[in-house]
UniProtKB/TrEMBL annotation:
This is tRNA threonylcarbamoyladenosine biosynthesis protein TsaE. GO terms for cellular component: cytoplasm. It comes from the Bacteria. One of its GO terms (biological process) is tRNA threonylcarbamoyladenosine modification. Transmembrane segments: none annotated. GO terms for molecular function: ATP binding; metal ion binding; transferase activity. Belongs to the TsaE family. It comes from Candidatus Buchananbacteria bacterium CG10_big_fil_rev_8_21_14_0_10_42_9. Pfam families: TsaE. NCBIfam families: T6A_YjeE. Gene3D superfamilies: P-loop containing nucleotide triphosphate hydrolases. It is found in: Cytoplasm. SUPFAM superfamilies: P-loop containing nucleoside triphosphate hydrolases.
Amino acid sequence: MKKFISNSPKDTKRFGHNLVNKLRPGTAVALSGDLGAGKTTLVQGVAEALGIKNQITSPTFTLMDIYPVRSKDSNGVNSAKSSIFETLVHIDCYRLDSPKEFGEFGAMDYINDPKSLVIVEWANKIKQHLPKDAVWLNLKLGQSERQRVITLTGSL
């Protein structure tokens, strides 16, 4: 278990950006933490690192958003990490009433897909559906209004 301190949303995005460089194909990232702890902010950093230009918001009502990953930078050069993943799958389980609902909207099609990076907010609600080697990140409010404590469980 490793702990990281984020002192701003920018730090949390940077953590997400750096996380991408450590992920392997087929990795699922499970996020947990209270409302407002920075889960979506972290996903925004991951998306930026993958060259995704879309505005990333939490798919609380749609449950799942799928973003194509840009495989080339603005100069037409292949990006090392972008070439590993073809899609970012952002799932929010906040509104799920039971774990079985996770299988009802197509999310299972992406779990373990080596071409997809799957990030699940409120993952503790569907833990049994995630791979045993999922990377777990718990985000908690820190000692100041902007501070967050990110705890990583699992191996990168």
